[in-house]
Structure formats: structure tokens, C-alpha cells
Write a structure and sequence with these properties.
- The complex is a heterodimer of chains A (about 100) and B (about 230).
- In chain A, α4 runs antiparallel to α5.
- Chain A has about 100 residues and is an all-alpha fold.
- Chain A folds into two domains: about 40 residues; about 60 residues, no CATH class.
- Chain A is about 75% helix and about 0% strand.
- Chain B has about 230 residues and is an all-alpha fold.
- Chain B has two domains: about 170 residues, no CATH class; about 50 residues, no CATH class.
- Helices cover about 80% and strands about 0% of the residues of chain B.
- The chains are: A mainly alpha (about 100), B mainly alpha (about 230).
- Chains A and B meet through α1, α2, α3, α4 and α5 of A and α1, α2, α3, α4 and α5 of B.
Chain lengths: ~100, ~230
């Protein structure tokens, strides 16, 4: 029951944020400070998801070379900084992870 | 459909196709994650059609698995969806002349990839009057491929061997969006503070770390931007 509440609620939240200015509001009527803050949303949210995914894959901090996801993530960052196609970085990261995992096995 | 509208629509389908190679595994993982979190395949697929947002779907899966309260889960969905406010604000001047049904449809179909494509298309010189058909073509293509991938993931679900570490595709696809988003020193500050805070706050109850870290990162970005201007 509460899962359906979350499912429908997630739909409402994602639609309202997407539709906010396209359907409902004029962006020029919003305070400047709010618009400045919005610029940093992608960098902050994405980093808050990515960093724990690399540094604490099992729920606790693993900052060592024994953590293959940390190293594979570094490879993916290096590729993403040079190659525009996001797929290149995803593939490089997965190949690096599989390589490191098979070395450790 | 006017012949030009049709060709714009098809151009949208074609132009978005390179990113589908990332959409397919990401959608598959989102489907697997929903079922892995304890939702039924039907619930996972319904979530995907209703929310149509990979990040939101993964956050819901993570928090449902952690048995977080519904309100905390929706708060986290709101935080990860804040970027849509920015996309919506940037896109709205281009769509302001369209009837409401068009704006509702294009808002529903708004994604990270669709936004990036749309800004590129509207930035091109020449006649812009039919470019919403291009955005629709790109959006519908992403939607269809995404849902097919989610359904495949939700149905295949638990049968993917854990040794494939397919969940890492999720982290990597966010990383692939993150790196190009770091253009200024302030962007970098937002990312570094949010990332560090996500580690420090990992122990917070109700999985509040994502919300806390994101807000700290946004504040850091704003602070660096202000200091830089003075």
C-alpha cells in the first residue's frame, strides 16, 4: 500500500518539477538567488550519488586500492574528461571493473 | 502532420539515438533494482511509466529496500528532481508559444539527455517554429526504449548474476553526466562538498544523506560563486 503511495507520489513530484516553468510559472518572476542555486543542482546531486557508489560500495568507507569500484571510477572519470560520448566512460568503467575483479579472483 | 513536422520528428528520433546505447543498460538496471528492492515487476514498471526518471526510480528502489518512510523517500525524489526545475526554466522560453497539451507532453518527456539535445537544437540558427516536433521525436524515442529496457530488467530481475556487477552501470551513468557538468570552480566546489558530505552523512537515519549532501553541495557552489564575483 505505501509502495503505491510512493510510486504515485514520485510521479507527482517528477512531473511538477519538470512542468514547473514550462507549464505553470514564468522563470523571470523567480528570485535571482533561487536561479543561481539551481545551477549547482546537477553537480551536487550527481556527486552525492556517485561518490558513495565508488567509495562505499558495501555501505562503509573503502578508500584503498583493494576497492575495484574506486579504481574503475577513476578510469571512467579520466575517459569522461576526454571523450564527449557518455557511453565511452560507462564502457571503460565496466571493463575496468570486470578486469580488476577477475584479477582479484 | 505537416511534411516538415514529420521530418523534424524523425530527425529528433535519429539525433537522440546515440545516447540510447546508455539508456538500455541503465533502464535494465532500473528494472532490476525495483524488483531487487522488493517491489513486484508490475510496481516497478508502473513506477517507470508514472515517474519516467531513472534517477528517481533508483532512489525509490534504494529507499524502498531500506524501508524508509514514504515522506523521506518522496523528499529524496524531490531533491534529485530539482535539476528539472533548472531544465524547465531554461526550456520554457522556447516552448511558451505552444498550446498547453504540447507543453504538458514535452514536460512529461523531459530527461537529462532530452534537455541537452533540446538546448542544442534550439541553439541552432534558422526557423525554430517546428522544433518542438524534434523535441517530441527525441522524447518519444527515449521513452519507448527506456520503458522496454525497464520491462526487460523487471521481468529478468533476479536472474542476472550478481557477479556481473550490473548495478555499477548506475553509478557510472551518473558519473558520465557529472563530469561534463563540472565547468566552473563553483561547480567543482558543489560536487566536492556534496560528495564528501555524502560519505560523512552516510550514517544518517532514514537515508537522509543524499538530501543533506545535495543541499550542502548547492550551498558550497553558491558561496564560491559569490566569493568569486566580489
Amino acid at each position: 500500500m505505501s509502495e503505491w503511495l510512493v510510486i504515485v507520489g514520485a510521479g507527482v513530484v517528477t512531473f511538477l518539477t519538470r512542468a514547473s516553468f514550462i507549464v505553470f510559472a514564468d522563470p523571470h518572476k523567480f528570485p535571482h538567488g533561487f536561479r543561481v542555486a539551481l545551477v549547482f543542482v546537477p553537480a551536487a546531486v550527481l556527486a552525492a550519488i556517485v561518490v558513495p557508489g565508488l567509495a562505499m560500495p558495501h555501505g562503509s568507507l573503502e578508500l584503498s586500492t583493494a576497492n575495484p569500484r574506486l579504481l574503475a571510477g577513476a578510469v571512467a572519470i579520466a575517459v569522461a574528461a576526454r571523450v564527449k560520448n557518455p557511453l565511452a566512460s560507462i564502457v571503460a568503467g565496466m571493463v575496468a571493473l570486470w578486469g580488476l575483479q577477475s584479477l582479484a579472483a | 502532420m505537416l511534411p516538415n513536422a514529420r521530418s523534424e520528428f524523425l530527425a529528433g528520433c535519429r539525433d537522440i539515438s546515440p545516447v540510447l546505447v546508455g539508456t538500455v543498460p541503465f533502464g535494465f538496471v532500473a528494472g532490476v533494482a525495483a524488483v531487487g528492492a522488493g517491489m513486484t515487476p508490475f510496481e516497478g514498471i508502473a513506477l517507470s511509466f508514472i515517474a519516467f526518471s531513472g534517477i528517481a526510480q533508483l532512489v525509490v528502489a534504494q529507499l524502498v529496500a531500506a524501508q524508509a518512510p514514504a515522506l523521506v523517500t518522496l523528499g529524496a525524489v524531490l531533491v534529485v528532481s530539482l535539476r528539472f526545475l533548472m531544465y524547465s526554466a531554461s526550456f520554457s522560453p522556447h516552448l511558451a508559444h505552444l498550446p498547453a497539451r504540447w507543453r504538458v507532453a514535452l514536460a512529461y518527456l523531459m530527461t537529462d539527455q532530452g534537455f541537452a539535445m533540446g538546448m542544442q537544437i534550439y541553439g541552432r540558427p534558422g526557423d525554430r517554429s517546428l522544433r518542438h516536433w524534434h523535441a517530441l521525436g527525441a522524447g518519444v524515442t527515449l521513452f519507448v526504449v527506456w520503458q522496454a529496457a525497464v520491462i526487460a530488467g523487471a521481468v529478468a530481475g533476479a536472474q542476472v548474476p550478481a557477479a556481473w556487477s550490473l548495478d555499477f552501470v548506475v553509478t557510472l551513468s551518473f558519473l558520465a553526466l557529472l563530469v561534463p557538468a563540472l565547468r566552473t570552480r563553483a561547480d567543482l566546489a558543489a560536487a566536492v562538498v556534496a560528495g564528501a558530505m555524502a560519505l560523512v552523512a552516510a550514517g544518517l537515519p532514514y537515508k537522509l544523506a543524499l538530501v543533506t549532501a545535495s543541499l550542502a553541495g548547492i550551498a558550497a557552489g553558491v558561496a564560491v560563486e559569490r566569493a568569486h564575483r566580489k
